[in-house]
Amino acid sequence: MTLNHAMPSKIQPMLAKTGTLPKDWENWGYEFKWDGIRAIMYWNGKDIRIESRNLLNITFRYPELADMGKWLGSNAIVDGEIIAIDKTGKPSFSKLQQRMLISENKITKSLLNTKIYYYLFDILYFNGTNAMAQIYEKRRNILEELKIDHPFCRIPPCYKGKGNIILSVAKKHGLEGIVCKKLNSTYITGKRSDEWVKVKIVKSAEFIICGFKYGRNSKDRIGSIQLGIYNNQKKLVFVGGVGTGFNVIENKMLLKKLEIEKTEKNPFDEKIDKDVNFVNPKYVAEIEYRRWPQKDILQQASYKGLRFDKSPDEITLKEN
Which of 67-76, 90-99, 222-231 is predicted with the least confidence, judged by mean pLDDT? Predict the structure, then answer.
């Protein structure tokens, strides 16, 4: 590893591009894609700090990870994903939302009942040395040699071989897809690299909430949300409305947030339904869909949850 004089205080995670299975399959490692949020953990020898993808301190939301340091040497930075598990044992982004909404002064035991796991897949810094310049295969070896045995942390395997076999296993178990990582790739902070490729089974993308409609004959719930995405000219374009996927708790929470952001200004250049209540383009939602022909209007789409770890500025046609 390369000697480094100081441990970085903040690291923007390396990101994957959406694509297809690589043809030179023998040069890649394959990991399952989890339905959670990205989280980088810092251990300075005394305290654990956890940051989201957009560099927010989220340590207080996951107190069960506070004793992770005993497996991380004198100091370390690790990268992974925090997930929540539903009753069937599968990752559930909807369940994780209950943790993501906790504010530091409103932590309750009932909210902490949502069981989480931290799935580690990379190590960026360890015992005073910088691992980011090392290739992925070597970083994985360092990570696995830590022999972490924590009740709320796992190191899911990296598979080698033909990616289509791993993808079929992910499909069989109802997972989102897989992430293909080039075995000789270094860790490039804050970049979406061709050397990490996510292959999705379920089509999903993030969009900006630009408006909403109330439920039929009721202003106590949301009937649908109206979505947009930035084009290459940094203008918001309308991609349709979504009216399914909300449970009662999420609907109530989302309505409260959106009503505060109501505005008379249409964020789109085009006119849309007069019944829409426009809102400031502040919140990002993850949406599953069956089709998005020519990246025009979403078809058979369903709401999955808010992405507090992503900024509206990131939500562009280019990235989707």
Answer: 90-99
